[in-house]
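Archive entry. Fields below.
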Amino acid sequence: MSKYNHSKESEQQRIDQIKEQVKREITALTQHDQKTKSEIIHLRKTFWEDVTVNMDNPEDALETVLSIKQQSELLGERERTHGTMDQTIRRLEKIQSSPYFGRIDFKEEGQDDSIPIYLGVASLLDEEKQNFLIHDWRAPISSLYYDFSPGEAYYTSPEGTTEGEMTKKRQFLIQNGTIVSMFDTGLTIGDDLLKEVLGNEANPQMKSIVATIQLEQNQLIRDESSRYLVVQGAAGSGKTSAALQRAAYLLYRHMDTLQANQMMLFSPNPLFNSYVSKVLPELGEENIEQTTFQQYVQKRIGKSFEVEDAFTQTENLLTLIDESEYDQRVSSIRYKSSLVFKALIDRYLSRLSKQGMQFKQVRFRGEVLIDASRISAYFYSLDQSISMANRMKLTAEWLLIKLTRLEVLERKNGWVEDEIELLGAEAFQEVRKEYQQEYEDQDGDFDEAKFERKQLAKKIVAKQFKPLKNAVKKMAFVHVDRMFVNLFKQAHEDTPNDWERICSQTLTNLNNRLLRFEDVTPYLYVKDQLAGSKSNHAIQHVFIDEAQDYSPFQFEYLKLIYPTAQMTILGDINQAVYAQSQHQLTMLDESLHTGKGHHVMHLTKSYRSTSEIVEFTKQMIPKGDLIEPFNRQGQKPEVKVVSAPEEQLEGIIQEIERLKEHGHQSIAIITKTAEESKKVYRNLNERISLKLLTKDSYEFEQGIHVVPSYLSKGIEFDAVIVHDASDQVYAHEHERTLFYTVCTRAMHELILFSLGETCTFLKEVDQATYHVEQVSK
Ligand SMILES: Nc1ncnc2c1ncn2[C@@H]1O[C@H](COP(=O)(O)OP(=O)(O)OP(=O)(O)O)[C@@H](O)[C@H]1O
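PREDICTED_STRUCTURE:
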C-alpha cells in the first residue's frame, strides 16, 4: 500500500470517527429536542391554566401580570432552546456529510511537534470538549490555510501574533462523509480543485467559495483596519463571493454584538437578491438584509411622484437616436450626480435657514387652522445658531401644542353637536360606563348628560385631529416639494453652462410629478435636510456591490442614512454602465478614499471565465493587461458575421443546440437594450424554450434567457451569445463598458453575432485571440 493510500485511509478513519461522534451528538440532541418540543406544546396548551388571573384589586392585578410574565418567559426560554438545538442539529448534519475541506499541520515556534488543524464550515470539539476536531474557517488560526504555503507562517489573533512553520497543507473533497479526492497543495490553494470548481456548470444560485478562497480574497474578507473598505476588482475576480464570505466572517468575529439583520447589502437589481440568497445559509448564517438603491428610494418617496429607475434611465439613453438630445440628458445626469451639485444644494439650504423656507398651511374641515406664514414666522423666530433640523423639530412641537389648544376650542363648534346626534347607542353606552367608573360617587348635582356630551365631543374632535397631529409629527407641514422646485427657479453661483436648460427640463418633469433617476438622490437629500434625516443607526455594516454605479453624491447620501455603519464598497470601474458613472467620479474612485479610515484594495485575478475569454475581453478596456486570468482553458471566443437578421436568428438557434449538446445548461442571449430583448424573445419563443429577463424579474433558473445588457451585471452563464455586436448597435465610445460587461458574463463559451461590420471594441481586439466566421446562406 502506498504512503498516499495509507494516508487517505487514515484520513477516512478519522472522518468515520467524527461521523460516529456526530451521530451520537445528533441522537442525544434530537431526544433532548423532542422533550423540549413536548414541553412547549404542553406550555402553550396549559398557558392560561397555569396563570392566576385575578383583577379584583391592584395587588391581585399586579400578581396576575407577574404570573403571565413568568409563564411567557418560561415558554420563550423553551422556544429559544428549541431553536438553538434545531440549528445545532442542522449544523451537525452538515458536518456529517462534509466535515472539512482542508488541513494544515502547524508547528508553533518553541514546540517540538506539528499539530494538524482541520478546517470546516463549522467547528467541532471532541467529546471531552477539550480539543477542536474541526476549526471554523473563520477562526484566527484558519487564516494560515489561506495566507501561506508550507514553510514559515504566522497568524494573528486577539492574543497577538503566533509564528511557526506549516509542515503540511492538504485539501479534501468530501461528499456524504467519504473522501472523493485529496491533494497536498503547494503555493496557491488547490489549483486543481479550483479548476474543477470553476469548470462546473453555472448555477442559478451563487455558491460559497470557502474551500478555495484565494490569498488576496482572504485579505478582503478579514480586513477590519478601516471604516470604508474599497475593492476595485476585475470582472469575475470574486468580489461578490468574497463580500458574502466577509459578511459570514464578520458575523463570526463579532457574534456577541453583530447580527445578520444589522448588515445591509445593496445589490444591482432584484434578480441579484435571489442569486446570492443561498451563500450565507450554506455557511450556517442567516441572510443579511438586502435591497437595491431603487427599492430604498421607492419606499422613501412612495406614491407622491412617479420615480424613474436607473434601468429605465439607461434604456431611454441607449435608445435615444438624436445625439444632441443624448448629450444634453447625459450632461444633466452627470452634473446632478456630482458633489459640485451637492455643494450648490448645501448653499441653497443654508440660505433657506435664513429665509425662503416654505410651509404648508394646516387645514381642518376646509378651513385654515394655522397659516403657513405663522409657521414660517415661528421658525425664523428661533435662534439661528440652532441647527435647521432642530429648529424644524421645535416648530413641530410648537405646532402640536397649538393644535392641542385648537382641538379644545373646536369641541364647541356646531358640527360636533351634529356628529353627536348621529352617533349610535353604543357610543353613548361607552361614555356612560366611563362615567359610572369615574364619577358614580359624585355629589347629586353632577350633570350626567352634560358629562356625556362633553366626553363625546372630546372623542369626536380628537379622532379628527389625530391625522393632523400625525402629519405634523411626520413633518408634512414642511413644503419639501416646493423648495425642491425653487432650487431650480432661483439664481445660484457656480452653475454649469447649461443650467438654464437643466432647470427648465427639471421643472417640466416636476410639474408632471415625475422624478427622474438623477433627481432622486438630490430630492431625498433636500427632504432629509429640511424635514429631518431618516438615518438608520441599527445597521452596523453596509455592503455596496457594483459600486461603480453609484455617484459621489449617492455615496454622501448613503453615509448620511447609515451614519454609524462601516462600509464594504466593491466594484469594477470598467463595468460602469450608467451615464452618471461613465468617465465620471464614482463612489469607487480612489480620490474619495484617501483619508484615514479608508482602505483601498485591488483584485486583478479573474476566476469566472476561461483564460481564452479573459485574454479576449481584457483587450477592450484600458489597463486590461493588468488582469490575470485563472489558468483554465476553453474555446476561443467565436465571432459570427451575418448579413441578414434571419441569419442571425438561425445562427443563434444552431449555437444554442450545439451548446446544449455540450452540456451547457445556462445560456444567455444578451442584447443591448430591453427593446431588442423583447424582439429577440418574440422571434425565438416559438422555436425554442426560453425566458425573457426584465427589470422586474426576481428570480432566474437554469435554462436559456434573453437579457438586456445592463441587467446581466453581477450574474454569470455557462455560455453567452451576444446579440448583434455590430457597429450599428454598439456604435458609441460610451458603450464600451457595457459591451465589456456583457462579454465578461461568460464562464465557458462566448459567441458574438454581428449583423454586418463588427463594432470598434471588437475590431481593436487581436484577431489571434478569437475565431471569425462569415456566415451567409
Ligand atoms: N476563490 C474562489 N473559489 C471558487 N470560485 C471562485 C473563487 N473566486 C471567484 N470564484 C467564482 O468566480 C465567479 C465570479 O465571482 P463573482 O461573481 O464573485 O465575481 P465578481 O468580481 O463579483 O464579478 P463581476 O464584477 O464580473 O460581476 C463565481 O462563479 C465565483 O464562484
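CURATOR_NOTE: The chain is about 45% helix and 15% strand.
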